[in-house]
UniProtKB/TrEMBL annotation:
Taxonomic lineage from the root: Eukaryota, Metazoa, Chordata, Craniata, Vertebrata
InterPro entries for the chain: Prefoldin, Prefoldin_subunit_alpha
Keywords: Membrane, Transmembrane, Transmembrane helix
A biological process from GO: positive regulation of transcription by RNA polymerase II
TM region(s), chain numbering: 12-34
Molecular function terms, GO-annotated: transcription corepressor activity
SUPFAM superfamilies tied to this protein: Prefoldin
Protein name (Swiss-Prot/TrEMBL): Uncharacterized protein
Entry's Gene Ontology cellular component terms: mediator complex
Amino acid sequence: FYVRAEVPDTSTIFVALGYGFFAELTLPEALAFVEKKSKMLTQLSETLTKDSAKIKANIRMVLEVIKQEGEEEGEGKNRGSDVGL
């Protein structure tokens, strides 16, 4: 939502730093902070994306091994049932 307000001194603004903390910064300081935070979040996003891809690949490998184990187990059962014929 938006609120109309008059701000008598626009030389500083409050910036959310995270974890509920705020800092009163000048406009140049705020811009520098936002740029650094943006870069940091972009790097974090890239790292998490890479980690996620690795985890997905590991899950696929495990599922493939489980599938192969199941197929081998199924083949063994089929062979055992043919012996009695």
